[in-house]
Structure formats: C-alpha cells, structure tokens
Amino acid sequence: MGQLAEGPVMEHFRLSELRVMRPGRIGLHDLNPRDSDASGKAPPGTVAPGLDEATQLALLACRAGFRRTGATREEAYYVSSLWRRQGGAWISLFSQDTPVANIPG
After folding, report:
1. Under the phi-then-psi rule, with left for phi > 0, alpha for psi from -120 to 50, and beta for the rest, what region is 104?
2. Is the dihedral of CA 44, 48, 49, 51 positive or negative?
3. Angstrom distance (rounded) from CA 102 to CA 28
4. Which among 19, 16, 8, 18 is positioned nearest to 67, based on CA atoms?
5. Statement: the pTM of the whole predicted model exceeds 0.70
6. DSSP codes of every residue in the chain
7. Cα 105 from chain centroid?
8. In Å, how far are 48, 88, 98, 99, 101 from 104, measured between CA atoms?
9. pLDDT tens, 87-96?
C-alpha cells in the first residue's frame, strides 16, 4: 500500500451510469474450446476444477468521475469489470478502464 503512504490519492469520486449485466454461466467449454464438441457443449461428465454450472458471473459497467488530490480538474473513465460469485463472495476476474476523452462522439 505504498500508494497510500502519503495520504489519499483522490479528493472526490462519483460513480454514475451504473449497469449490472448477467453474461451467463461459465463451464468447461468456456475455458478450453478444444474440449468442446461441434455444438460447443462440453463432453458429458466433464467438470472443470473448481467450477460447476451454478457458478454465477456478473458484468459491472459504470462511469467513474474523480479528482486526484491536488488536481484542479476532474477525470472520467468508463469502467467494466467481470465478477464471479464463489463461496458466498464476489471475486473480481477482470477490469478495464477507458478514459472518457478517448471515446469518439
């Protein structure tokens, strides 16, 4: 946590345009396409280690606006992150931030 050794790095932040989507469930065929048959389904009786058909996924997307400590202008990013529910907790699998200034239009 050396990043926080000198105090807060943000003076202000705000999340907006929040969307939660359920992309589906993950299984063996999602992890290793070579093991799928022509229909895209995993062979009967195969189980990926640590995963089963009840594994839940969620995709969280939002706009994050913030002002860094000492800065005069606010920055904004579109953030998307993929989460998996496992053992009663949500585990972050992936996150991507895109500066709003880089979005055409």
Report:
1. beta
2. negative
3. 36
4. 8
5. no
6. -GGGTTS-SEEEEEEEEEEEE---B--HHHH-GGGS-TTSPPPTT---TT--TT-EEEEEEEEEEEEETT-SS-EEEEEEEEEEEETTEEEEEEEEEEEGGGS--
7. 25
8. 40, 39, 12, 11, 8
9. 888 899 999 9
